[in-house]
Amino acid sequence: MSSHYWCHGPLCHTYSTVDRVRGSKGSKVLRTRKIKQYDNGYSGFYKYFCSTGCYNDFANKYAEQVIRIAPRTEPLETRIEDPVREKHTHNYSFGEHSWYTTTIKKIDTDNNVG
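The structure corresponding to this sequence follows.
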């Protein structure tokens, strides 16, 4: 296995940063960045893109092709208990203030795998 991947961002080689400049005097180029591969705990797109910007460029360009690989034809659902709405009150020097929070608790089941 290679010790690096080239960034998959379709515009990576167009961004003007000093670390992308390569070549000898008179024939300089901007080059796609390398991403060093080592056990750093990163997973997913961090292994293939040098930045979130390059990931976004890739996603914007290829989103429809990626979705065609595994289209979603029906919604996913997660079972929950009835939501509990709770009122909170606090007395400040300028008067009483109230607010509400709603707790939503998921029901653990084996068929919630998406």
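The chain has one helix and six strands.
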